[in-house]
UniProtKB/TrEMBL annotation:
One of its GO terms (biological process) is siderophore transmembrane transport. Residues 1-27 form the signal peptide. Keywords: Cell outer membrane, Membrane, Receptor, Signal, TonB box, Transmembrane, Transmembrane beta strand, Transport. GO terms for molecular function: siderophore uptake transmembrane transporter activity. Residues 244-622 form the TonB-dependent receptor-like beta-barrel domain. This is Putative TonB-dependent receptor, plug. Transmembrane segments: none annotated. Gene3D superfamilies: TonB-dependent receptor, beta-barrel domain (2.40.170.20), TonB-dependent receptor, plug domain (2.170.130.10). It is a multi-pass membrane protein. CDD domains: ligand_gated_channel.
Length: 648
């Protein structure tokens, strides 16, 4: 304990000295009118022409936030609630407008980061580090017509760094960081271009002893974790200006994530559970993804054709004290083949169309061995048109052919209307969604549902919903605000029931997610910038009238950034995150429990010594607030971190 206190004091002093040293970074303008969005229509679209609600986070913003993991990157996004049981890199989940992680599609370089094996415990993106991320787009609302069954609640699209637009043979960045809880983090990313060939190679590692997240059960027992990421990308512009062909590009990517994490039982030591001590569970995850694509641009940019093939492999090993250290093992693989065309017949018109097929395979070696696969095929199209200089409309649909549930159709429409005279933009979307039961859900039901008096057959989830919002620019675009109302109803929602080890799934009826999200960015002066978000979410089971677990009604964040002109290369920031009370149901024995609200404060600073070298530091949970986001668990207390960044 003495060593921990000394480390805390030393690190806090170092960060405080850096934060208040007389040393800026130019405050960014409140609105970047040149921002392009890709995920909203599956093609580059000007942000002010997008009808759906989308948030774009750039590499520069990720660097300024000193984000270590994807969780850190997403924490301030409106409508998105990120929560965990307090274990670093383990059991982090999120709710997007009330939809949980399993109903939101996560893509890394176009590859779906989820399959049946990874669904058994925690999603593999728990171990995805932020060092190599170039851009994140969070697309909210029904997106099944654009992206398929898994996008019933939205899409999180992650793009890693690339050398495609580089003008150098070699450039890159390296970081090293240490901090509280014996945390070590390091990364190296290198990319470049030589003639028509470009590449990227990157590696990142993060390890921590973690904090004690179950003090009520086993004081001073921390749960640590470690993860390693490797990313490779290579491409070539094979042909240029040959007949009707403008450009033929071939690109291949490979990403791998390895993670180990200690974890605690969600119920040990709680009332209604006979266990009196903390369990010592261990989780090992391996995730590999690969993708190759061929892109042919034709007819002076009027037609783009992209053919791609991708694969994700996941391997999960879980050991729990409950089973005397025995291991449950899960394997999963997901193959996808896709064609996408983008036709631009006239200026202001674009048609995205294509077809894809997915094959999902899953097998286990746990309490019983199981092996199953399914195939899902679909065709899709989305048409966008600038009706006038200030009005953009889009409409799209997708037709599915599912192994089990046959054929169905989803659709989406969007609108964006701009009033330049007042700096006002109206935007909105309406769409439907479809999500079939996963193999995991079906396999669990074959074993346990009938024994508990339920039919083993599950119906697919279906949804329909809309959002409508107003974006307003004021003070010469120094202040930009947005208020968006959303309303979505999901029928035949699939939820788990029963104790751990005897889990089964049922269709609970309908769930309504409705509320509003607000955001504001304000360049107060050339040195001071304020930004904030607030989300109000009513997520209710219509049968019981109860708020869905882990969905606070109120949540928000505020950030103040200060970049004094008097000291070039220095900037500092403070952030507050807050959430109201929520609920959690650890088990049927324990029942439904209230989880208290919280507010935490973080402080950070960054000093660019020269164009190639920076030092930085931050304090997380500045006031050492004791709080939790899941019942019976506590999130990390006060932590201080410092690091260096070198660009070459």
């Amino acid at each position: 304990m003495i060593h921990r206190r000394m480390s805390r004091a030393a690190l806090a002093a170092g960060v405080a000295a850096l934060a208040f040293a007389p040393v800026p970074v130019q405050a960014q303008s409140a609105q970047n009118l040149g921002t392009m969005v890709i995920s909203a229509n599956r093609t580059e679209t000007e942000a002010n022409k997008v009808g759906s609600s989308v948030t774009v986070i750039t590499a520069e913003e990720i660097e300024k936030r000193q984000a270590a993991t994807l969780e850190d990157v997403l924490e301030d996004v409106p409508g998105l609630y990120v929560y965990s049981n307090g274990n670093a890199q383990n059991n982090t989940r999120f709710k997007l407008r009330g939809f949980d992680s399993g109903r939101v599609l996560v893509l890394v370089d176009g590859v779906k980061i989820d399959n049946q094996a990874s669904q058994m415990y925690d999603r593999p993106y728990n171990h995805l580090q932020a060092a190599d991320i170039e851009r994140v787009e969070v697309l909210r609302g029904n997106q099944s017509s654009l992206y398929g069954s898994d996008a019933i609640g939205g899409v999180i699209s992650i793009t890693t760094k690339s050398g495609r637009n580089s003008s150098k043979i070699l450039e890159g960045v390296a970081t090293a960081e240490v901090g509280s809880f014996v945390t070590r983090r390091g990364s190296v990313s290198a990319w470049g271009r030589y003639g028509d060939v470009y590449y990227k190679a990157a590696g990142a590692g993060l390890a921590t002893h973690g904090d004690d997240n179950r003090p009520m059960v086993d004081p001073d027992e921390a749960d640590g974790s470690r993860s390693v990421n490797y990313d490779f990308k290579v491409g070539v512009d094979a042909l240029k200006d040959v007949g009707i062909l403008d450009l033929l590009n071939v690109e291949a990517t490979y990403n791998t994530m390895r993670g180990d994490a200690e974890y605690d039982s969600a119920t040990s030591g709680m009332a209604g559970n006979p266990a009196t001590a903390d369990t010592e569970g261990f989780l090992h995850q391996e995730t590999d993804t690969a993708r190759i694509q061929v892109n042919a641009k034709m007819f002076d940019g009027r037609l783009d054709n992209t053919f791609s093939a991708s694969r994700m492999d996941a391997y999960v090993v879980a050991r729990s004290d409950r089973y005397s250290g025995s291991a449950n093992r899960y394997w999963g693989d997901l193959e996808k083949y896709e064609y996408q065309g983008i036709l631009r017949p006239f200026d202001g018109h674009s048609l995205v169309f294509g077809a894809d097929q997915e094959r999902d395979h899953f097998r286990t070696k746990a309490s019983s061995s199981q092996n199953a696969a399914l195939v899902n095929s679909s065709v899709f199209g989305d048409y966008a048109v600038d009706v006038t200089d200030n009005l953009t409309l889009s409409a799209g649909l997708r037709r599915y052919s599912h192994d089990t549930f046959g054929e169905t159709t989803t659709y989406r429409t969007t609108a964006s209307y701009r009033v330049p005279e007042t700096g006002t933009r109206l935007h909105g979307s309406y769409g439907t969604g479809f999500k079939a039961p996963t193999l995991v859900q079906a396999l669990y039901n074959r074993e346990t549902a009938v024994a508990n008096g339920f039919d083993e057959t599950l119906n697919p989830e279906e949804s329909r919903g809309y959002d409508v919002g107003v974006e307003q620019s004021l003070l010469g675009d120094r202040l930009v605000t947005d208020v968006t109302f959303f309303n979505n109803r999901m029928t035949d929602a699939i939820e788990s029931r029963g104790p751990s080890g005897n889990r089964y799934y049922v269709n609970i009826g309908s769930v309504r997610n409705m509320g509003f999200e607000t955001s504001a960015d304000f360049d107060v002066t050339d040195e001071v910038r304020l930004s904030g978000t607030y989300t109000y979410t009513q997520s209710r089971d219509n049968a019981t009238g109860l708020q869905i677990d882990q969905t606070p009604v109120h949540q928000g964040a505020m950030r103040v950034a200060y970049a004094p002109k008097a000291v070039e290369g220095f900037d500092t920031w403070m952030r507050m995150r807050a959430a109201g009370k929520s609920f959690d149901t650890p088990s049927t024995k324990i029942g439904r429990k209230e989880v208290g609200g919280y507010a935490t404060f973080d402080l950070g600073a960054d000093y660019e010594i020269d164009k190639s070298f920076s030092v930085y530091g931050r304090v997380e949970n500045l006031l050492d607030k004791t709080y939790g986001q899941m019942y019976g668990f506590e999130n990390a207390g006060f932590g201080a971190y410092t690091g260096v960044r070198a660009k070459f």
